[in-house]
Design a protein that fits this description.
alpha+beta; about 160 residues; single chain; 2 domains; about 15% strand; 3-stranded antiparallel beta sheet; two-stranded parallel sheet; Rossmann fold; 5 strands
């Protein structure tokens, strides 16, 4: 993903676990200010209008390389996950399918699964077992996958187009 976002939309890019931990801790501090205070009205809660600023997307590619048995810099944002919709926080995680069944017990992935987050299961081995809902990975053509949310699982085809020159 290096160099894919080249605009004011990119706030940072971490290449090491310590750098990522520092950035995510700063983000938690920033987004912590978006939690509703005592004076927030029910209408403001409905409209999400008690805070201003951009929606924040954190994209973690190669999650299996970022998280080790002794260190998980992404754990810093775990407390934000249940409030993501309310505070404008979105976490997108990609990882290889090998070992994904075991990885679901890692605290951040377990939280996402418990919250019923939407996921995309692409090509992989059925031996990994059910990853989301009762869906197991299967060998599929490039770009094809099962989009799984709380209500359904749907076969989709993703596409890529080169950026305009």
């Amino acid at each position: 993903m290096l160099g894919e976002v080249q605009s004011e939309h990119l706030s940072g890019y971490a290449t090491t676990a310590p750098n990522l931990a520092k950035m995510l801790n700063e983000l938690v501090s920033l987004l912590g200010k978006r939690f509703p205070g005592e004076n927030v009205t029910p209408q403001q809660l409905r409209d999400r209008s008690w805070w201003t600023g951009p929606e924040v997307y954190v994209v973690i590619d190669d999650y299996d390389l970022v998280v080790t048995t002794s260190e998980n810099p992404v754990a810093a944002v775990r407390e934000l996950l249940p409030h993501g919709r309310d505070i404008g926080f979105h976490l997108i995680i990609a990882r290889r399918s090998g070992g994904a069944g075991r990885a679901l017990y890692e605290p951040v992935l377990a939280s996402l699964r418990d919250l019923g987050s939407t996921g995309l299961i692409m090509s992989g081995s059925r031996d990994e077992g059910a990853l989301l809902a009762s869906i197991k990975p299967t060998p599929m053509p490039p770009g094809r996958g099962m989009l799984v949310d709380r209500r359904r699982a749907e076969l989709i085809q993703t596409a890529w187009t080169p950026p305009p020159e």
